[in-house]
Amino acid sequence: DTADFDREVASVCPFCGVGCQVSLKIKDNKVKFVEGINGPANEGRLCVKGRFGFDYIHHPHRLTKPLIRRADAPAKGLNVDPGNWQQHFREATWDEALDAAANGLQAIGGKGVAGFGSAKCTNEEAYLFQKLIRQGFGHNNVDHCTRLCHASSVAALMENVGSGAVTATFNQIEHADVAIVIGANPIENHPVAATYFKQFAKRGGKLIVMDPRGQALKRHASHMLQFRPGADVSMLNAIMHVIVEEQLYDQQYIAAYTENWEAEKAHLADFSPEKMAGICGIDAETLRDVARTFAGAKAAMIFWGMGVSQHIHGTDNARCLISLALMTGQVGRPGSGLHPLRGQNNVQGASDAGMIPMFLPDYQPVGDQGVRTAFQEVWQHGEIDATKGLTVTEILDAVHDGDIRAMYILGENPAMSDPDVDHARAALAKLDHLVVQDIFITETANFADVILPASAFAEKSGTVTNTNRQVQMGRPAVPPPGDAREDWWITVELAKRLGLPWTYAHPSDVFGEMTQVMASLTNITWDRLEAQNAVTYPSLTPDDPGQPIVFADAFPRENGRARFTPASVIAPDETPDADYPMIMTTGRQLEHWHTGSMTRRSRVLDAVEPEANCSLHPSTLRRLGVEPGGMVRLTTRRGSIDIMARSDRAVAPDMVFVPFAYVEAAANILTNPAIDPYGKIPEFKFAAVRVEKA
Ligand code: SF4
């Protein structure tokens, strides 16, 4: 009964980077149901996750007490039943658990300790987490799941545009007449953003979808380019080749706002569509048509997802997209822009807040003495290390090498999310001391020495920043269960035990400090967010709701110009061969979120999509002698899983698509840990695989 609630609380959906605003309807201190409200990114709309994916917060597996590993516990492994953990852990008081956590980290100390945060943390939690690692241990070994998501996009944007955030909100598509969506499946992964894309197509906008896997947005597309996996650079360079050859570029814009054009132009000469068609699998005439369509637009946007970023050439892919927008002058005007669709609800904010090893908050380089001095003055404690820290994947390698022996992991689940996850699990098991702060005994918490019970998003105060650069207020709607506490409080208590002079009493205190060191938050205050729910950065005055489009006049690079960086074709790290003849790619499904810790504990979502599955073309299933719904065995150079197979014509006959939410058939046992040299992102989107009837 939707009328049956005592009170309602305005907050933000905890799942994807669209950042839909929600009204949580509460009865007897439980969330009964959720409705969309009029946020700037969703205008009342919600997808199935936002609408029905809330009851994980009341799941019986929720952690309600701090836990400490028993002295007589079985050897560390993926062997803890989250509903029956007593053989492995014992309950502890907060004082006992915090002392154990801090003492264990301090006993190793310095560069022997590393921190993984999460893009599900609030901005304030992310800021505190990176500050604790930097200040408490004197180095920059702190990273989070952006490394597995858009790190390569950010590397390319920082290099060529001077800023890692989107240049325009996705809602700007309302003013565009052409849009490219590449390596993204927004109907499943950014469903409310996809509603704006569909409306755009309905109004007559030309929607160009590029994806090695077919997808539902195809129905709304003027062009669907189902290119060969890993052939992004050859396809995009061919399109740009046509724009150069036919002089469709915007010479005035290039001259006024960019640099290195002549090098880009010369580089593209080798990439004729006729030459590239065989590599990318798209015929030359279609490539020419797409080039003319994009270059002929009055206003055009480019959206991309992890199909672009999760490759060893992910940074090159993003460089091509940036070059395409620059040569056609499609940045800085209404309806134009570059928009990497962010994955998690706060991956933009957690990155902005400095939870990355090479940057302090607001992407200020750790190597810059002036930057470090400014932070040291505000932080008033200790020197900040000038050396870049290790990334997520490098940290786990360093554990195997014995260089890192203790970790503090906040809301992140590397035992499911890292590539070659058996390697990650072995690293977690090898640690001398692991502190995990989370709401469930996740797969990662299986390996913990101390587990600190934290709060779900609906149980705490804090701000988050969505894909549109909109900073939004999350409010506590229900109390945390048992003795679970807000994450910011836990990190502060740990910091105090590490001897740091922290006196924060509320997330608003943390946000206040962030505004002192982060120019992006100028004119954005806690009180303003309380009153208005959302402000987009940059906000030019205390009343400005924020700028949906940036870089109309100049780019935030030293000379004010954006840069063309030419990209060459690099083959995927593994190519199919006789032993592993097919290509595996991974991703998400509409109903399940990332490693499934929340959505698989949401009754409706788990009912809709209860079983681990992969997708294969019907002709492949026939060849294997497997009926749809039958089991297949997938094997790569890292390992094997058995999984139910679905028949799906969207998947090419030589491909298999595997969602990564299912622990019982974990896709990341199979994925390739080879990384992009710039963004250090693993090649989740391409592994050579053998598929057999199980
Ligand atoms: Fe939540 Fe994203 Fe769905 Fe919006 S589109 S309701 S933010 S999961």
UniProtKB/TrEMBL annotation:
The protein's UniProt keywords, in alphabetical order, are: 4Fe-4S, Iron, Iron-sulfur, Metal-binding, Oxidoreductase, Repeat
Q: Which domain of life is it from?
A: Bacteria
State the EC number(s).
Answer: 1.2.1.2
Provide the Gene Ontology terms for cellular component.
membrane; oxidoreductase complex
Which segments constitute the 4Fe-4S Mo/W bis-MGD-type domain?
6-61
Q: Which residues form a coiled coil?
A: none
Any one of the GO BP annotations: respiratory electron transport chain
Return one GO MF term: metal ion binding
Q: Which family does it belong to?
A: In the C-terminal section; belongs to the prokaryotic molybdopterin-containing oxidoreductase family.
What this protein is called in its record is Putative formate dehydrogenase
Q: What is the lineage of its organism?
A: Bacteria, Pseudomonadati, Pseudomonadota, Alphaproteobacteria, Rhodobacterales
